[in-house]
């Protein structure tokens, strides 16, 4: 969208704000200047009025100096872009300002549209590639460093909701291609962060069943039913119940109509997806099970297992009664296996002794994924 002969400006909003010119990162200044750049970028080139900018950044209770401060920040942004050869990209046009720039939000939506076209035509390979490309643009929560401004929360939640819908569509495409094994871990991560999202449970149950893990698929249904009751006071939908019955009866329709030949195209890695409001950036060290259970860690060990007196009780037949525990270590928290029958895996690798945990780590206890989030 940049003007001809000008440097190409790009505003990235799917994570902390970044502004680049011809691929070079530009110093975006303090919080208010960054917020102004974000509002202009989200506008997609249209003119944003001065009143709209004031409401977006300062809210209803405007200080007497707000208009002058806005004018000052716009001037600083214009000089910053001019120093990078993009002077004409930020223009003053009645009744406000316009920024000519590419955005990752527009690219995200274009990939989703292309994926949807592919899915509608039965081209699941294109659909999976386009949805994966959309998801790969995310660098964290949308507008992650701007939530204190009035405009940010609503826009961020809407973008995060689109992100989750995109992840579900990507999973549908991968399942249609018969690629189930590599899909299980991303789905478990998504469910840990969005435990009442029934579509994710449906996809996980199908993926588990197709990889020969009928018991795990049935266990996932039991967990989903409990979560929906505990969190929302509702029973599973007819669709989720239908998949449960199909797994019990081993019905043939659970398998894809056509599966991609072995070795024909690898699955895609998805950045774990969450709604913007689900996990504060300053979250304390926490264990999150894929049923939505959360345990905030402090000074005492936390035991994971099937037994009712465990701190994190897992409805998983493959978990031992007292399977593993997370306890304080010399530099944060460590994971310890408690002599379980099936062992404990950390990021896909079995642990033999105390293993240090860092944010984002995945603990596999039986068929249940528990994530470690927050400060390491």
Automatic annotation (TrEMBL):
<dbReference type="InterPro" id="IPR001867">
    <property type="entry name" value="OmpR/PhoB-type_DNA-bd"/>
</dbReference>
<dbReference type="InterPro" id="IPR036388">
    <property type="entry name" value="WH-like_DNA-bd_sf"/>
</dbReference>
<keyword id="KW-0804">Transcription</keyword>
<dbReference type="InterPro" id="IPR051677">
    <property type="entry name" value="AfsR-DnrI-RedD_regulator"/>
</dbReference>
<protein>
    <submittedName>
        <fullName>FHA domain-containing protein</fullName>
    </submittedName>
</protein>
<dbReference type="Pfam" id="PF00486">
    <property type="entry name" value="Trans_reg_C"/>
</dbReference>
<dbReference type="InterPro" id="IPR011990">
    <property type="entry name" value="TPR-like_helical_dom_sf"/>
</dbReference>
<feature type="domain" description="OmpR/PhoB-type">
    <location>
        <begin position="1"/>
        <end position="101"/>
    </location>
</feature>
<keyword id="KW-0597">Phosphoprotein</keyword>
<feature type="domain" description="FHA">
    <location>
        <begin position="302"/>
        <end position="351"/>
    </location>
</feature>
<dbReference type="GO" id="GO:0003677">
    <property type="term" value="F:DNA binding"/>
</dbReference>
<comment type="similarity">
    <text>Belongs to the AfsR/DnrI/RedD regulatory family.</text>
</comment>
<keyword id="KW-0238">DNA-binding</keyword>
<dbReference type="GO" id="GO:0006355">
    <property type="term" value="P:regulation of DNA-templated transcription"/>
</dbReference>
<dbReference type="GO" id="GO:0000160">
    <property type="term" value="P:phosphorelay signal transduction system"/>
</dbReference>
<keyword id="KW-0805">Transcription regulation</keyword>
<dbReference type="Pfam" id="PF00498">
    <property type="entry name" value="FHA"/>
</dbReference>
<feature type="DNA-binding region" description="OmpR/PhoB-type">
    <location>
        <begin position="1"/>
        <end position="101"/>
    </location>
</feature>
<dbReference type="InterPro" id="IPR008984">
    <property type="entry name" value="SMAD_FHA_dom_sf"/>
</dbReference>
<dbReference type="InterPro" id="IPR016032">
    <property type="entry name" value="Sig_transdc_resp-reg_C-effctor"/>
</dbReference>
<dbReference type="InterPro" id="IPR000253">
    <property type="entry name" value="FHA_dom"/>
</dbReference>
<dbReference type="Pfam" id="PF03704">
    <property type="entry name" value="BTAD"/>
</dbReference>
<dbReference type="InterPro" id="IPR005158">
    <property type="entry name" value="BTAD"/>
</dbReference>
